[in-house]
Amino acid sequence: MIQRARLLNLILADLYGPQRLLHGGLLPAALVFANPGFWRPCHGVRVSGGTYLHLLAVDLARGPDGDWWVISDRTQAPSGAGYSLENRIVMAETFPDLFREFRVKRLASFFRSFRETLLRLSPMAPTNPRVVLLTPGPFNETYFEHSYLARYLGFTLVQGGDLTVRDSRVFLKTLEGLKQVDVILRRVDDGFCDPIELRSDSYLGVAGLLQAVRAGNVTVANALGSGLIETSAFMPFFPGLSRRMLGEELKLPTAATWWCGQPHALRYVLENLDSLVIKPAFPSKGMEPVFGGKLGSEEKSRLIEQIKESPQEFAGQELLNLSTVPAWSEQHDLTPRRVVLRVYLAAKGDSWVVIPGGLARVSPSIDTPVVSMQRGGGSKDTWVLSDKPVDTFSLQRPRDVPVELSRGVVSDLPSRAADHFFWLGRYAERSEHVARMLRCILIRLTGQLGTADGPEWESLTKISDCLESPHARLSKEDEPELHPDLLRDLEQEILSRIFEEQRSDSLTATLNRAGRSAAQVRDRLSSDLLRVVNQFGSLTRGADNLAWGYVSVGDALAVLNGCIGTLASLRGIEMENMTRGPGWHFLSIGRRLERSVHLVRLFRTIIVPLTPQTWPALEMLLEVADSSMAYRSRYFTILQPAPVLDLLMNEEANPRSLAFQAKDLSDHCRSLSRMPSGAGWPVAKQERFEEAASNLFHADVRKLCEPRAGAIRERLDELLSALEAALPALSNAITHAYFSHAEPERTT
To answer: What are the tens digits of pLDDT across the range 512-564?
Structure first.
């Protein structure tokens, strides 16, 4: 295994360096230059210590005679080491006596060596370097392993959006500012790592990363471009390259493989198709392995034509009769399963160390020819036994060793995570506001509203104005006498606003955005909170999965009621279960900002131009603000603008009032500004918001509600306009200071 790692590393160093193997004819040029895994911008880039492969995975298969064969190499971002570790920890905790009795070698020493290697790779900080693990994100199928491995090794788990490049150096965007990154352990494929010099359509990488690597300011493990030889097409050349480059015969045999780019290999593959597995020469093309013996005559003919048309894109490999291991089946008995063993090597100095174990992957059934976790396969812990006492070192703290107690807030929240917490709060609050508005309208459409005229209709259009949208199917200029079906049109517009996923302003689309924000920080959310968030995707699909145009108003009301109840559950868990750290503060700030924006808009749309014709809109306003009972307990059924505005704007005891939002928002802002990360808090924008709010709350409510010429309450509108401008200014300032890091130096 170590010999193989040396050989693969030397091949990469040559192909991205002097390319003597190509000049000497030891490798065909088409195998390199036609390979999408060969990234020309990486050519000539110096790598730390000449090591391209800091972590290597090799897939081994055992034949019926007991011999082991290599069937594939994983060189760019090997997966599964974290799963192997998890399997071992679970097994060791379940059967501790067995491990002691059989002297099973521990895996911790391997991961310690790997961790020490990464720490020594730092080009700028020999002591206390900052190492991060770069993941594609929570939607990647192996994200669990990424987070598990990052926690075990003690590295920060980051996504591409957490990093930025300034002056050819990579920085981690934290709440405390930009912090330089020295080493990146990547789990992102080569091409996605830098959208500037590699794949321009990538959202997973870091713009300018390759330039920082080229400047020697950061080390990436594995080196960028190392996916070039992650293909079976190179395997036929390894024995000869081993003799030429190492002066040794290849010790670990490779399953017989033929690259169809060579005429003699092409002839052999076409003549022996029934006994071969046809694989893509360039895996990035996405072709699945094809078993020639399982093809019908027409399928075989098509495959032969494809191979003849582009022979360099195919490789044939000997079909191995994989050995089996016993596995516990769903029928509660032991059955044989095909097995492939993935073994890991970690660079250490000028050599490599091999994991004393590995990830044994088993097929879902004895008849399944491909052993893959994605196809329903399972995994097993792999033991290597020792005839001597085993090393008891562990990166995990022993259970019987006391730990130092820690209290208070741990401020380790990356800017990206804070950003998603912030928008989770905003999207959740926006969803509830939209749901309450739509419910208010639909309730009146079910019977209280007779025709599209009179005060009820005028008031309803005022409420609808607050939902004004460029996607609306109902024009504000539509008149009842010209459109006798206006009520039906409004009903269809409301149903569209609830269910139509293609509308960016629909309730469904907003809930989906909230769910995506939560998914980005799910490793920081409790299981109960995640259960509530996971319901978002199905909240608006409860009407028998009918197309939205065929959903009844009654079913739509049931959906809205369920949506409001679920969002209330989310609020309750936030208040009762979340630790009062930066994440909770940013989530709450997002909520308070969003609710304040909606309240100001409602006041300006309903109360500022209130006339006798739109008087019923006051009742609708109280209903949307969930304050009808509070109002009736004080004023019975007498609707007047001054007491309504006082309850919804000035009453700090009302959690739905604007004053409550402003006070709570200021409290969260002060809490964040006092944290270690608060040095860049936008004080000026916060003071501007608080001044606008103070001017509004200290004004005489009765005078503000007295209409002037044209029935417009100009003074109220002026004060609300000032607050409406201050709210997005504060939001943008928080984004600028903590989320985007648009400037190296923060300003208030």
So the answer is: 999 999 988 887 888 899 899 999 988 877 554 556 667 788 889 999 999 99
User: Would you say 56 and 212 are in contact if contact means Cβ atoms under 8 Å apart?
Assistant: no
Distance (Å, whole) CA 197 – CA 189: 14
User: Would you state the structure tokens that stand for residue 261, as one six-digit string?
Assistant: 């780019």
Cα–Cα distance measured from residue 655 to residue 634, given in angstroms and rounded to the nearest whole number: 16
Confidence (pLDDT) at 738:
86
- What pLDDT score does 544 carry? 46
Asked if residue 163 lies in contact with residue 207, where contact means CB atoms within 8 angstroms, the answer is no
Distance between CA atoms of residues 563 and 527, nearest Å: 20
Which structure tokens are listed for 507?
Answer: 């309730």
Kindly write down the DSSP assignment for every residue of 556-622, as one continuous string.
Answer: HHHHHHHHHHHHHHHHHHHHHHS-SSHHHHHHHHHHHHHHHHHHHHHIIIIITT--GGGTTHHHHHH
pLDDT at residue 679 greater than cutoff 80: no
> With the C-alpha atoms ordered 701, 657, 581, 515, is the resulting torsion angle positive or negative?
negative
**Residue at 101: amino acid letter:** E
Domains and CATH numbers, the chain: 256-318 (3.30.1490.270), 411-578 (no CATH), 597-748 (no CATH)
Q: What is the model's pLDDT at position 744?
A: 43
The H-or-E segment that residue 9 falls in is helix 2-15
The Cα–Cα gap between 301 and 317 comes to: 19
DSSP classification of residue 18: T
Q: How many helices (H) does the chain have, and how many strands (E)?
A: 26, 18
pLDDT at 478 over 60: no
